[in-house]
Amino acid sequence: MPHTQKEVRVRIAPSPTGDPHIGTAYIALFNYVFTKKNKGKFIIRIEDTDQKRYRSDSEAMILDALKWVGIQWDEGPDIGGPYAPYKQSERKEIYREYAEALIQKGHAYRCFCTTQRLDVLRKTQQAQKLPPGYDRLCRDLPKEDVDKKIAENIPYVIRMKMPTVGKTTFKDTLRGNIEFENDGIDDQVLLKTDGFPTYHLAVVVDDHLMKITHVIRGEEWISSTPKHIMLYEMFGWEKPDFCHLPLLRNADKSKISKRKNPTSINYYRRKGILPETLRNFLALMGWNFGDNVEKFSTQDMIEGFTWDRMTLGGPVFDLKKLSWLNGQYLKIESNDKWLTCLKDIVFNDEYLLKIIPLIKERVEKFEDFIDNTAFFFQGDLNYANAPLVPKGRTAAEIAGYLNDLVLKLDICENWNHTEIHNIFNEYLAEKGLKPKDVFMPMRVAVTGSKETPPLFECIEVLGKDIVQRRVRLAIDFLKTMKEQ
């Protein structure tokens, strides 16, 4: 059913589970441009119901990063709005009310299956090469059995009753009609045992209550859309228009990931990419301005925006192209703007004050500062002549150690030298290794040199994004050594 509401309302709904992702900025940009083109409202909603992965600092980082990119919203958790609150954790009772309403309508049911039973079911399905999914054991439990289990305080989730016959069809703005066979769609959990909703219930309820007219999101959500369509129909609500944007891709066409490309917005901010460059570059990810024009402002994009200029080929996130485009912007910037950016981004007081204590004992003249700290200000390092492999070890072994450690560092929430040192010591004990097997290769990977200020303090100051990028490049280099 087409939307009859005049005002266009769109949203993005990032999850505060880590650093602000470049994909969030990409989706936000197209939502922002679309709503500005149509004189509508752009909303940010924080989807923080995944309590296991929730990070308390992530929400603030996401909002700060999007503001730096230059995307402003009309309603959100920081500025409020007519449909507050804009954080799902503060809307918990709303979701329970709607989940219970679905049970009353006969469109949902309480499922008392334990985690252990579901694990056995999943393993059995894998062994028999059957499609994964819930077997609907609790779907038709008699009411007296349900009441008895509730009285015994047996934990339960609420699942939707997905039709087992027919098809669910929806029209995608970019892809036309898409249909799914209902018998292949699971009875999705809507409300978990902890009382928090799953994404599927929360997103539909919130989009309806916040009067969202157009859902513009990444194509990874296409397979979830029939569940959402069915929920709209179960509630008897008008559906929004759906538009699924092509995913950002690595050079090998795989989905962009931190293992192959830096994915944190803060990495590009720290690298010295201008926000207007990043907006321009993200606009080029699947959208064509026309006449082979590659450099354009966001206002130019708003004025010329139409969906028929979008391509679905899977845009490649090319760092060389991003650097080239940034160079085009830098060429026309004034000397005063250069000076301001250098002070703010490269030589800001906060960063320098972290570095100075690490090198005070190593220098005798201020002119020695650059020689001792160059790696703090460089981009990617060159490992051609770097001593990455200590005596008695192979390139393959060191690549493996570094890969293990970069994965452990990725989940380090308290990024400080003490915590980082503990991670390394635990790894040494786990693998039965000596410090020289790991510390020196890591030092060379992150600094390019064997002689630097204390390793773990350097890692702390450089920051997670830079360290991960450099270590992964060092691993790539070690793999080429292994193949020689």
Would you mind describing this structure in some detail?
This protein is mainly alpha-helical. The model has no long low-confidence stretch (mean pLDDT 93). The chain contains 19 helices and 9 strands. It has a 3-stranded antiparallel sheet with strand order 3-4-7. Helix content is 47%, strand content 8%. The protein has helices at 22-37, 58-69, 92-105, 115-127, 143-151, 199-209, 225-235, 265-271, 275-283, 298-304, 319-332, 335-346, 349-359, 369-377, 395-410, 417-431, 435-447, 455-462, 464-483, and strands spanning 9-12, 41-44, 108-111, 157-160, 167-172, 176-181, 189-191, 214-218, 241-245. Helix 16 crosses helix 18 (455-462). It is globular, with a radius of gyration of 26 Å. Strand 5 and strand 6 form a beta hairpin. It has 3 domains: 9-88 and 248-319, HUPs (Rossmann fold); 91-245, Rossmann fold; 347-484, Arc Repressor Mutant, subunit A (Orthogonal Bundle), CATH 1.10.10.
Descriptive labels:
3 domains, Rossmann fold, 47% helix, 484 residues, Arc Repressor Mutant, subunit A, 19 helices, two-stranded parallel ribbon, globular, mainly alpha
Q: Number of helical runs?
A: 19
What do we call the CATH topology of the largest domain? Rossmann fold
- Gyration radius, in Å: 26 Å
Question: Which regions contain 5 or more consecutive residues with pLDDT less than 50?
Answer: none
CATH class of the largest domain: Alpha Beta
Number of structural units classed as domains: 3
Q: Globular, elongated, flat, extended or rod-shaped: what is the shape?
A: globular
Helix amount, in percent? 40-55%
Portion in strands: 5-15%
The largest β sheet comes out as: 3 strands, antiparallel
Strand count: 9
GO molecular function: ATP binding; glutamate-tRNA ligase activity; tRNA binding; zinc ion binding
Binding site for ATP: 258
EC number: 6.1.1.17
Subcellular location: Cytoplasm
